[in-house]
C-alpha cells in the first residue's frame, strides 16, 4: 500500500540511485567492520563506524531542514531543538536501562536525580523504560512542539526572517530550560553513561553496526519520504507556497497548513535523527539546543544545495568530515573555515554543490535538445513528457 | 440606474445582513440579490489615511466592468477588500447577493469563486506552465487530498483548453520563470480561469505589454466575459475603450463617475482629477 | 538559625575590626604613653580564669579607650587569642596546623612561631562575644572620624545589646554630627527593645525603629524578646506592618530600577540593530560581535593606559568610546562593502553570511586575546554604590542607564536632523527616487551600516563595565537584541526604547516568582507569542507601504 503510493508518485532515477547507495553503505560499512579481520586492507575501524554513523544522523537532520527550507522556504533556525528533543527522548530510555548499574545503584532513579535528592521519578519520566514508548515520544515530542509552534506562527503569517528569528528564540529558550536542574533532564550534564539498548551493550561493535544500519535505513526512508512528497501534488504546492505564498492563498489554498504539515513532518524526521544520534555518541546535553548548532545545520544544507534531495546529505557529510579533519589538524582554525564557508556559499554558490551541478546538467540537456531540434525540425515538437516526473 | 431603496430589502436572507448596518447614505441603486458583487458604504483607513471612503459599487452577474482612476484612488484596496485581504472598517461587502465577504478569509473567498490577478504578475516561477495551471485547477484544496492526488482526464482536458485560450500551448512544459512579462500575465489569467471562478478581478492586465499583446489581452478578456463576471482595473484608456464596457472612475476612495467610456471621459469632474492638478 | 545569627555577629565585628585596622597605623606613635597601660590590660585577658572574669578583663581593656585594643578584641571573638604557656604572654595567632605564627597583640607584628602545644587558647562564649561587641562599639564610637562612628553606630543597630546602652547614651551626648546622632538614637532604641525597660520606654523605642524602617527594623522587631505587656506587643506588630508596607514600595522601586537598568543594557545592545535591521532591513547576525569588538577595544585602551599612562587610567572609558565607534564602525563598513551589498533583497542569505562573519570575528578575537575572560575594571568614578532610601544604586549601572539614554538621543538627532540622517531615510523609503535625486545610495548604505555597527561598538564599551569581556560576549546579546527590535516594531527607534525598557522591567518582575532563568524563558515565550499576534511589533507601520 505504502510502497504503491511511493511508486505511483514516480520517483526519479536520482532518488532511486541515492537510495541504493545509502543502503549499500549501511550494509557494507558495518560488514567491513565486523567480518573483516583488523589487518585487512578493507577493514573499517570501529571509530570510523561511529563517526560515519553520526554523519548519517546529521544527513537525516539536514534533509529534514531541507524539507522546510528547500521546498517551503521556511528557514528554521531551531531545527536543532527537534533533533535534541528526539535525542532526549531516546536518552531517557537509555537512562532507565541503566537500572542499578549507576553510581548510586538506585533501581529506578537516574544518578543525577539521586544526586539532587529526588525521591521519586517525575511523571514525565514514566513509560520511558519501555522502548516502544520512547520510540513514540521520539517522534511525538518534536512533532508536537513543531505543530503547536507552527500553528501559531503560520496562522499569524509570521514569515521570512521574523520566523527564522523566533525559531532561534525557541531553541534558545529550550536551551535555557534544559540547563536547569529542576527541569528533570540532568541539567548541565545532560544524560550520559548509557549502558545498553534493547538489552545489547551500547559499546559493542555489533550494536554499533546495528545502529549504523538503522541510521542508514532511516536516512533512506527520509529520502524516500522527501522524494515522494516532492513529486506529489503536495510537493508542487510546497514549492508554490515558497515562490508565491499570496498566489496560493488567492487560489483557495491555505498555505499555513501546507507549511504546518511540512514543518511537523520535518520536526519528526529531525527527532528520529536525534534519537539515532544519541546512542552512537553516548551523550545528550542542553548544548545541542544552542542556536549555533541549528545554524550549522543550515549551512550543511546550503553547501549541498537546498531544494534537492541528495544535496543536504552530501553537504552534511562533507562539512562534518571537514570539521573532523580540521579539528584534528588545526583546531584553532575550524571556526575561520566554517565562517568563511558561510560567506562563500551564500555569495558564490547559492544553489549549493548539487544545485549548481543540476543547473549545469539541465543547461547541457537543453543545449543538446536545442541542437537536436535544429538538426531535425521534421521531428515536430518535443513529445510530451511523463507528467508526474520531476 | 435608480431603483428601489435598499433599506427595505432583505427579510428573505436571514443569515447575512443586519438591517441596522445599512448605511443611511450613498446607497447604491439596485437590489443586492441581483448582484454578484455588492459593496455599500465601505470605508477603510491606514494610519488615518482613508484609502476607501464610503465606496459603493455593484456588479451584475455576467457583467464586465472597467475601473479606472488615478494612483491612490483605491482601486487595489477595493480588490483587497473583496478578496478578504483587507477588512473594511465599515460597510457591507456581499458576494452573490447573500454571502458576507467580510466574514471570510482569502482562501475561503477564492474557493467561493472570486479569482484575482495581481497588479504585478504572480505565478509560481519554480514550476512549469503546466504545473501552474494544475495547481490552480479547482478541486483538490486540502493537504491530505493533495498528497495522494493523481491528475484526472477531465483535469487534463481543462488544462489543454485553458492553454489554448491563453495561447500558451507551445510553452506548456516551460518553466514559468522563463516566460516573457506578457506571457506571465496570460498565464496568471489562465490560472484564474482554471479556478473556474464566478468573478474575475483583473488588476492592470496590460501593464508593460506591447500593443499587439494589449490587443490580444483585450480579446482574451472579452472572451472570458462571455461566461464570467469580470472587473478590470486599468490605466490604459485605449485598452478600456477596446473593452467597450461600462466604466467606473474612482477618486480618493469613492466613485467619481460611472457610465460609458465616452460619458466618463467627458465628465468634467474626471477631467479635473486627471488633468486639473 | 543560631549559627546564622552568630555568623552575622562575627561578620559585623570583623567589619568593625577592619575599619579600625586602617585607623590604627597612623595613630601608633602618638599613643606611646598609653602603650604600657594597654599592654597591662591585655595581659589581664590571659591571666583570668572563667568567662565572668574574662568579661571583666575585657571591660578593663575597653576602658583604656585606646583604639588599638580593637585588634586583640576582634581576634578574641575569632578565637585567635592564645596565652603562651611558658611566660603567660597574650598573643594573637595566625596560620593552621601544628606550628602557628604569633603576633603582638597591640601592633599585630609577627613575633615568631610556636608549636600549638605550647599555647593555651583563650576560650570565649556568646556572653563574652557580647561584651567584646559592646566594648568595640564603645571604642569606635569615640573615634575621630565621623564615618567610623557611623559604621560603629550601624553595627550597633544591627547587633542590639542592652549592655552597650550606657556607651551609646554617652556617645549620643558627645556626638556633634547629626546623622551619626540619629543612627545612635536608632541604636539606642534597638538596644532598649532587647532590655528589660518599662513598657512606655519600649513603645517609644518601637516608634523610633518604625521610623527608621528598612529590612533591619523588621528584623529587630521580629527578634525582640516577647513582652508580657499588650501595648508593647501591639505597637511592635503595628510597626512591623507599617515597615513591611514601606519595604514593599521600596521593593517595587528596586525592581523597577533593576528593570530599567537591564532595559538600558538591552537598549544599548539593540539600538545599533535598530538601525541595521530596523532601518535598513539587514539581518546582521554579527551585530553581537560588533559589541564584543567595542568591549575588546576598551580592554586594549585600558591595558595601554595601565602600562604607559597610569595617570590616565580613569580616562580609559572616554578614550575608548570614539575608538570603539571607529573600530566597530569600520568593521561594519567593510562588512557592508565586502559581503552584505551583494545580498540585498535576500534576507535569509544575509543572515547566513553575517553569521559566518560573526564566527570569523569571534575566532579572530580568540586568537588575538585568548579564549578566557578579560578584566576591564571600573574607573573610580563608576565604582561603588549609594543608597536611595532602601534602594542600593551602583554607580556603574546608573552611568549605563544615563549613557544609554544619551546614545539614544544622539542617534535620534542624527537620524532626524542631520544630512546623513535625511539621506538615510530617503534611501530606505524610496531607493530609486533617492538615487534619481543624486544621492549615492551605495555610499549611504555603507555609512548607515557603519553607523549601526559603530553604535554597537559604543555599547560594547558600556557593557565591558558589567559583563565578562570574552569572545562569546556578543552571542549573549544577539537574540535579546533581535527580540527588542522586533518587539518594538521594525523601523521605529522609539519602539526600540520602549521595548527595551519594558522587557527589562518585565524580566526583573518575573524573576522573584520564576527565578532568573525561567523568567528569561517566560519573557522569550511571551515575545514569541507576541510576534505571532502582531508580527510587525508594538508600533507597527500599517498599510500598503508595508507590503511593497
Summarize the structure in short.
The complex is a heterotrimer of chains A (390), B (277) and C (548). Chain B is α/β, with parallel strands linked by helices and 277 residues long.
Can you walk me through this structure?
The complex is a heterotrimer of chains A (390), B (277) and C (548). With 390 residues, chain A is mainly alpha-helical. Chain A is built from 15 helices and four strands. Chain A is 69% helix and 2% strand. In chain A, the strands form two sheets. A two-stranded antiparallel ribbon of chain A has the order 1-4. The longest helix of chain A is centred in the middle third of the chain and has 27 residues, at 205-231. Chain A is globular. In chain B, 33% of the residues lie in helices and 23% in strands. A six-stranded mixed beta sheet of chain B has the order 6-7-8-3-9-10, sandwiched between helices. Chain B has a four-stranded antiparallel beta sheet with strand order 2-1-4-5, covered by helices on one side. The longest helix of chain B has 15 residues, at 211-225. Chain C has helices spanning 2-27, 32-47, 51-63, 69-78, 126-141, 146-158, 165-174, 178-193, 199-212, 214-223, 230-279, 287-308, 316-338, 347-369, 395-417, 419-429, 431-436, 441-463, 475-488, 493-514, 516-533, 544-547; strands spanning 81-84, 90-94, 99-103, 110-115, 119-121, 385-388, 391-394. In chain C, a hairpin with a 2-residue loop joins strand 6 and strand 7 (391-394). The model of chain C is unreliable at 1-9, 22-31 and 542-548 (pLDDT under 50). Chain A binds chain C through residues 75, 152-153, 155-162, 164-166, 168-170, 172-173, 176-177, 179-180, 291-292, 295, 298-299, 302, 332-333, 335-336, 338-343, 345-347, 350, and chain C through 283, 285, 339, 342-343, 346-353, 355-364, 366-367, 475, 479, 482-483, 486, 517-518, 520-521, 524-525, 527-529, 531-533, 535.
Amino acid at each position: 500500500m505504502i510502497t504503491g503510493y511511493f511508486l505511483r508518485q514516480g520517483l526519479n532515477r536520482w532518488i532511486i540511485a541515492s537510495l541504493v547507495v545509502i543502503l549499500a553503505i549501511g550494509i557494507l560499512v558495518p560488514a567491513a567492520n565486523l567480518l573483516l579481520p583488523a589487518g585487512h586492507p578493507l577493514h573499517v575501524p570501529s571509530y570510523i563506524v561511529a563517526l560515519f554513523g553520526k554523519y548519517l544522523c546529521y544527513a537525516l537532520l539536514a534533509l529534514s531542514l531541507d524539507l522546510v527550507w528547500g521546498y517551503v522556504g521556511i528557514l528554521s533556525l531551531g531545527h536543532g531543538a527537534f533533533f535534541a528533543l528526539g535525542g532526549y527522548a531516546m536518552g531517557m530510555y537509555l537512562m532507565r536501562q541503566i537500572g542499578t548499574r549507576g553510581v548510586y545503584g538506585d533501581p529506578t532513579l537516574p544518578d543525577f536525580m539521586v544526586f539532587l535528592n529526588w525521591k521519586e521519578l517525575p511523571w514525565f519520566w514514566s513509560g520511558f523504560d519501555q522502548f516502544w514508548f520512547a520510540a513514540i515520544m521520539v517522534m511525538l515530542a518534536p512533532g508536537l512542539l513543531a505543530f503547536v509552534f507552527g500553528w501559531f506562527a503560520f496562522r499569524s503569517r509570521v514569515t521570512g526572517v521574523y520566523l527564522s528569528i523566533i525559531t532561534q528564540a525557541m531553541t534558545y529558550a529550550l536551551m535555557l530550560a534544559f540547563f536547569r536542574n529542576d527541569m528533570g533532564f540532568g541539567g548541565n550534564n545532560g544524560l550520559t553513561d548509557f549502558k545498553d539498548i534493547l538489552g545489547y551493550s551500547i559499546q559493542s561493535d555489533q550494536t554499533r553496526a546495528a545502529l549504523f544500519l538503522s541510521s542508514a535505513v532511516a536516512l533512506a526512508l527520509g529520502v524516500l519520504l522527501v522524494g515522494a512528497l516532492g513529486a506529489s501534488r503536495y510537493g508542487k504546492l510546497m514549492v508554490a507556497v515558497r515562490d508565491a505564498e499570496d498566489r496560493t492563498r488567492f487560489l483557495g489554498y491555505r498555505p499555513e497548513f501546507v507549511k504546518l504539515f511540512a514543518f511537523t513532518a520535518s520536526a519528526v524526521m529531525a527527532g528520529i535523527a536525534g534519537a539515532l544520534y544519541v546512542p552512537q555518541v553516548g551523550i545528550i546535553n542542553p548544548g545541542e539546543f544552542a542556536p549555533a548548532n541549528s545554524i550549522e545545520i543550515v549551512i550543511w544544507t546550503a553547501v549541498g544545495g537546498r531544494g534537492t534531495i541528495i544535496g543536504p546529505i552530501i553537504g552534511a557529510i562533507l562539512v562534518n568530515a571537514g570539521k573532523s579533519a580540521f579539528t584534528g589538524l588545526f583546531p584553532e582554525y575550524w571556526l575561520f573555515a566554517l565562517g568563511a564557508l558561510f560567506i562563500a556559499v551564500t555569495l558564490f554558490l547559492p544553489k549549493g554543490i548539487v544545485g549548481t551541478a543540476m543547473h549545469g546538467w539541465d543547461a547541457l540537456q537543453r543545449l543538446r535538445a536545442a541542437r537536436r531540434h535544429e538538426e531535425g525540425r521534421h521531428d515536430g515538437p518535443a513529445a510530451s513528457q511523463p507528467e508526474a516526473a520531476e | 440606474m435608480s431603483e428601489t431603496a435598499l433599506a427595505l430589502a432583505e427579510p428573505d436572507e436571514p443569515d447575512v445582513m443586519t438591517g441596522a448596518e445599512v448605511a443611511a447614505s450613498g446607497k447604491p441603486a439596485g437590489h443586492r440579490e441581483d448582484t454578484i458583487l455588492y459593496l455599500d458604504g465601505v470605508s477603510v483607513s491606514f494610519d488615518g489615511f482613508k484609502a476607501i471612503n464610503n465606496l459603493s459599487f455593484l456588479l451584475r452577474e455576467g457583467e464586465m466592468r472597467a475601473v479606472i482612476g488615478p494612483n491612490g484612488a483605491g482601486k487595489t484596496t477595493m480588490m483587497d477588500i473583496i478578496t478578504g485581504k483587507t477588512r473594511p472598517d465599515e460597510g457591507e461587502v456581499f458576494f452573490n447577493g447573500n454571502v458576507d465577504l467580510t466574514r471570510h478569509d482569502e482562501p475561503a473567498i477564492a474557493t467561493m469563486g472570486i479569482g484575482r490577478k495581481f497588479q504585478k504578475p504572480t505565478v509560481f516561477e519554480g514550476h512549469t506552465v503546466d504545473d501552474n495551471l494544475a495547481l490552480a485547477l479547482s478541486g483538490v484544496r486540502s493537504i491530505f487530498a493533495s498528497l495522494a492526488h493523481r491528475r484526472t482526464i477531465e483535469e487534463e482536458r481543462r488544462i489543454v483548453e485553458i492553454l489554448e485560450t491563453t495561447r500558451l500551448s507551445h510553452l506548456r512544459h516551460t518553466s514559468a520563470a522563463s516566460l516573457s512579462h506578457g506571457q506571465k500575465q496570460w498565464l496568471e489569467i489562465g490560472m484564474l480561469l482554471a479556478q473556474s471562478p464566478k468573478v474575475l478581478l483583473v488588476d492592470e492586465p496590460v501593464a508593460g505589454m506591447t500593443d499587439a499583446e494589449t490587443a490580444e489581452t483585450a480579446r482574451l478578456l472579452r472572451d472570458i466575459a462571455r461566461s464570467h463576471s469580470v472587473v478590470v482595473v486599468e490605466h490604459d484608456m485605449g485598452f478600456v475603450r477596446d473593452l467597450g464596457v461600462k466604466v467606473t472612475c474612482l477618486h480618493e476612495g469613492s466613485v467619481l463617475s460611472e457610465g460609458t467610456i465616452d460619458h466618463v471621459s467627458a465628465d468634467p469632474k474626471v477631467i479635473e482629477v486627471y488633468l486639473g492638478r | 538559625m543560631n549559627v546564622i545569627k552568630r555568623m552575622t555577629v562575627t561578620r559585623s565585628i570583623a567589619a568593625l575590626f577592619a575599619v579600625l585596622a586602617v585607623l590604627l597605623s597612623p595613630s601608633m606613635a602618638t599613643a606611646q604613653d598609653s602603650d604600657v597601660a594597654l599592654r597591662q590590660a591585655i595581659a589581664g585577658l590571659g591571666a583570668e580564669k572563667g568567662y565572668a572574669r574574662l568579661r571583666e578583663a575585657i571591660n578593663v581593656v575597653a576602658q583604656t579607650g585606646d583604639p588599638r585594643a580593637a585588634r586583640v578584641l576582634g581576634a578574641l571573638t575569632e578565637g585567635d587569642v592564645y596565652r603562651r604557656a611558658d611566660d603567660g604572654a597574650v598573643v594573637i595567632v595566625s596560620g593552621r596546623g601544628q606550628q602557628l605564627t604569633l603576633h603582638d597583640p597591640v601592633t599585630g607584628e609577627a613575633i615568631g612561631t610556636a608549636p600549638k602545644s605550647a599555647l593555651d587558647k583563650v576560650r570565649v562564649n556568646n556572653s563574652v562575644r557580647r561584651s567584646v561587641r559592646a566594648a568595640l562599639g564603645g571604642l569606635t564610637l569615640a573615634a575621630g572620624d565621623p564615618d567610623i562612628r557611623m559604621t560603629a553606630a550601624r553595627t550597633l543597630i544591627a547587633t542590639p545589646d542592652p549592655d552597650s546602652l550606657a556607651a551609646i547614651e554617652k556617645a549620643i551626648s558627645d556626638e556633634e554630627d547629626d546623622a551619626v546622632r540619629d543612627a545612635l538614637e536608632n541604636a539606642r532604641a534597638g538596644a532598649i527593645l532587647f532590655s528589660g525597660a518599662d513598657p512606655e520606654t519600649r513603645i517609644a523605642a518601637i516608634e523610633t525603629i518604625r521610623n527608621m524602617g528598612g529590612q533591619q527594623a523588621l528584623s529587630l522587631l521580629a527578634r525582640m524578646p516577647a513582652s508580657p505587656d499588650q501595648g508593647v506587643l501591639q505597637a511592635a506588630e503595628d510597626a512591623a506592618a507599617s515597615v513591611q508596607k514601606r519595604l514593599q514600595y521600596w521593593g517595587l522601586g528596586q525592581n523597577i530600577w533593576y528593570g530599567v537598568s537591564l532595559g538600558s543594557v538591552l537598549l544599548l545592545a539593540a539600538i545599533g540593530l535598530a538601525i541595521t535591521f530596523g532601518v535598513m532591513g539587514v539581518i546582521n547576525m554579527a551585530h553581537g560581535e560588533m559589541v564584543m569588538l567595542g568591549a575588546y577595544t576598551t580592554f586594549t585602551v585600558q591595558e595601554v593606559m595601565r602600562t604607559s599612562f597610569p595617570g590616565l587610567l580613569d580616562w580609559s572609558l572616554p578614550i575608548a568610546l570614539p575608538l570603539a565607534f571607529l573600530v566597530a564602525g569600520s568593521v561594519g563598513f567593510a562588512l557592508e562593502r565586502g559581503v552584505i551589498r551583494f545580498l540585498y533583497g535576500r534576507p535569509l542569505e544575509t543572515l547566513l553570511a553575517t553569521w559566518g562573519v560573526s564566527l570569523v570575528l569571534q575566532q579572530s578575537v580568540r586568537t588575538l586575546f585568548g579564549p578566557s575572560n578579560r578584566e576591564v575594571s571600573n574607573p573610580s568614578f563608576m565604582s561603588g554604590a549609594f543608597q536611595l532610601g532602601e534602594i542600593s544604586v551602583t554607580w556603574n549601572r546608573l552611568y549605563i542607564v544615563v549613557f544609554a539614554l544619551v546614545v539614544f538621543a544622539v542617534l535620534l538627532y542624527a537620524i532626524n536632523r542631520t544630512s546623513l540622517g535625511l539621506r538615510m531615510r530617503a534611501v530606505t523609503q524610496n531607493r530609486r527616487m533617492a538615487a534619481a535625486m543624486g544621492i549615492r545610495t551605495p555610499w549611504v548604505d555603507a555609512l548607515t551600516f557603519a553607523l549601526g555597527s559603530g553604535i554597537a561598538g559604543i555599547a560594547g564599551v558600556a557593557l565591558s563595565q558589567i559583563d565578562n569581556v570574552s569572545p562569546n560576549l556578543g552571542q549573549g546579546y544577539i537574540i535579546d537584541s533581535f527580540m527588542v527590535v522586533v518587539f518594538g516594531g521594525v523601523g521605529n527607534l522609539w519602539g526600540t526604547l520602549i521595548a527595551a525598557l519594558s522587557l527589562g522591567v518585565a524580566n526583573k518582575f518575573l524573576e522573584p516568582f520564576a527565578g532568573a532563568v525561567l523568567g528569561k524563558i517566560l519573557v522569550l515565550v511571551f515575545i514569541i507569542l507576541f510576534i505571532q499576534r502582531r508580527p510587525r511589533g508594538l508600533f507597527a507601520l500599517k498599510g500598503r507601504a508595508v507590503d511593497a
